[in-house]
């Protein structure tokens, strides 16, 4: 435990479950004071997306050069494209004491778990696999082929949900948002209590 740094919050879940929708709702709430880490990807930009806001869009060559330069906390190849979390932003922001929020798929979350075992891992689950398919198809952003591959991935991802600290069902966006906010708040309270009790010992051990 590092008593000076912010909390790293990892939200995972299958494609189409509503991670982006719930995350936007959390960040639209003026009471939210954590920071969102914008990922890098080699995926093509969707209509309505903005470079530097939704993702930093990169070519495969650029992304691979960043991998070689150790610029990611984690990265994964997902349905034919790279996705990764830039290390610099996360470290700098946490060092300033802010909580940082990552929205990433499960292979990346496993890598984060190894590097930041003290992070908070939340899995966003659909009410059912049928709901998931309906949402993915309903979003209308992917071809039938890509939707098929994302659903195949989703089946594997759902199997991994027991590796997370919490599972939140996204039945309704506002409810999922409130559940995530409560989990983060409870986690802070728990850590503050531990820190208060052992502050002297932790500081001494850091010397
Ligand atoms: N609770 C919900 N009930 C019904 N529809 C929802 C709900 N949450 C999200 N959706 C819809 O599901 C679709 C997928 O949501 P979203 O794009 O947020 O998923 P995602 O998990 O971020 O997907 P990806 O991982 O592919 O980026 C969107 O059309 C969104 O409006
Ligand atoms: N391992 C990582 N996964 C990420 C990252 N940023 C996003 N993602 C996940 O990829 C899939 C597909 O996203 P989409 O925008 O193409 O629909 C989804 O599960 C995202 O959460 C990342 O930095 N690392």
From TrEMBL:
User: In the Enzyme Commission scheme, what number(s) does this protein have?
Assistant: 2.7.4.8
Matching InterPro entries: GK/Ca_channel_bsu, Guanylate_kin-like_dom, Guanylate_kinase, Guanylate_kinase_CS, P-loop_NTPase
Molecular function per GO: ATP binding; GMP kinase activity
| Assigned GO CC terms | cytosol
Q: Keyword ATP-binding, does the record have it? A: yes
Keyword list, A-Z:
ATP-binding, Cytoplasm, Kinase, Nucleotide-binding, Transferase
Pfam family name, one? Guanylate_kin
Compartments reported by the entry = Cytoplasm
Q: Supply the HAMAP family for this chain.
A: Guanylate_kinase
Instruction: Name the protein family.
Output: Belongs to the guanylate kinase family.
Record-given protein name: Guanylate kinase
- Source organism per entry reads Mammaliicoccus vitulinus
Gene behind the chain: gmk
